[in-house]
Design a protein that fits this description.
The chain is of the alpha/beta class and about 375 residues long. It has a domain at about 40-200 and about 230-255: NAD(P)-binding Rossmann-like Domain (Rossmann fold, 3-Layer(aba) Sandwich). The chain has helices at about 5-15, 60-70, 80-85, 105-115, 135-150, 175-190, 210-215, 230-240, 260-275, 285-295, 305-310, 320-325, 335-340, and strands at about 25-30, 35, 50-55, 75-80, 95-100, 120, 155-160, 195, 200, 225, 230, 250-255, 260. The longest helix has 18 residues, at about 135-150. It is globular, with a radius of gyration of 23 Å. This is 39kDa subunit of Ndufa9, NADH ubiquinone oxidoreductase.
Length: about 375
């Protein structure tokens, strides 16, 4: 029995020995630095890339960190609130998720977060302004500061996540500052990749779940506003795929696969939750704006006047670039029951889903 132990050990070592590396395991970055992947595919792999994800504790950021961790990528996750960053720790193998405290106005902290990375992804953004940070502070100055420091520290690639409706001429300050931030980033980092996703839906989103709770705010403009919602998992996977795509400068649009209206989405939420449609009246724009402005006096986040303005603006009608990232986006009906089932009563919890007919505008 004792003599067979060394033989068993040799067999175990032979079975667990990593496969021989091939040419495709070596990638040369624009800075001539080699990136070498190793190990079995999956969670315990080593992709060789080191990625800093600013805005990692946000809605999209959490899914992106999880995707990158499963690919064996070491991820630096800058955080402001340690409690929000704790859930990121188990998303990668031991030592692969590195948490670092930062402030968007502190250049030394930003430089420390990205100086060892070959890719930087900026997801930082705000839906509403606060007394400490307005749209320009975050979308323009903050984005420019991160891109500039990334260029100075020799980062090979920079990915800036904006919005599908970003435009310098937009009446919405949110969209206008997003567009201005894009211009500042391209000036500081000329080879940056700009990613413009549509409105995201998923767990803890501000679309489907918010419609189930506050339908009155989605009836503005009589629900006729056109929207192109996209699944947050699809956008996260698209960003993760960009890590392994060669240098790609320019803008990538990631709208949802279909154009819908808020009216249809409210009907969809009602049919999935099996709750009657809201009988609340449609508020005039002036009244909604006044109420939103007054609600800014409370300390918790509430509907802002700029968001009221956005409820009257159709999503940009541009062609999606999903083929570039190798993703086929999912329709919102495929996941509606997953995110809305919790709003059903116990008696209706397992009843089958019947979707309302789509409006003619949704036909592609």
């Amino acid at each position: 029995m004792l003599t067979s132990a060394p033989n068993l050990l040799r067999v175990q070592r032979a079975l667990t020995r990593p496969a021989q590396r091939a040419y495709h395991d070596v990638v040369t970055l624009p800075s001539s630095k080699p990136v070498i992947s190793s190990g079995p595919p999956g969670y315990s792999a080593v992709s060789g890339h080191r990625v800093t994800v600013f805005g990692c504790t946000g809605f999209l950021g959490r899914y992106l960190v999880s995707k990158l961790g499963k690919l064996g990528t070491q991820v630096i996750v800058p955080y402001r609130d340690e409690d929000e960053a704790r859930l990121l720790k188990p998303m990668g193998d031991l030592g692969q998720i590195v948490r670092m405290e930062w402030d968007i106005r502190n250049e030394n902290q930003i430089a420390e977060c990205l100086r060892h990375s070959d890719i930087v992804i900026n997801l930082v953004g705000r839906d509403y302004e606060t007394k400490n940070f307005n749209y320009s502070d975050v979308h323009v100055d903050g984005a420019e500061r991160i891109a500039s420091l990334a260029a100075k520290n020799g980062v090979s690639r920079f990915i800036q996540v904006s919005h599908l409706n970003a435009s310098l001429n937009s009446p919405s300050k949110f969209y206008a500052t997003k567009a201005e931030g894009e211009e500042r980033v391209k000036a500081a980092f000329p080879t940056a990749t700009i990613v413009r996703p549509g409105t995201l839906f998923g767990y803890e989103d501000k679309l489907l779940t918010n419609m189930a709770v506050w339908p009155i705010w989605w009836k503005l403009n009589h629900g006729e506003t056109k929207i192109r919602p996209v699944h947050v998992m699809d956008v996260a996977q698209a960003l993760a795929n960009l890590v392994f795509v060669p240098q790609l400068a320019g803008t990538i649009n990631l709208p949802g696969p279909s154009t819908l209206t808020y009216e249809y989405l409210l009907e969809l939420v009602s049919s999935v939750t099996l709750q009657p449609s809201s009988r609340a009246p449609v508020l005039p724009k002036a009244v909604a704006s006044a109420l939103a402005k007054a609600s800014q006096a409370v300390w918790w986040p509430s509907l802002s006047p700029d968001e009221v303005q956005r409820r009257y603006m159709d999503d940009s009608d541009v062609v999606g670039d999903w083929d570039v990232v190798g993703i086929q986006p999912a329709e919102i009906e495929e996941y509606a029951i997953t995110y809305l089932r919790r709003y059903r009563s116990a008696d209706n919890f397992v009843r089958p889903v019947v979707f309302p007919p789509r409006p003619s505008i949704a036909i592609n």
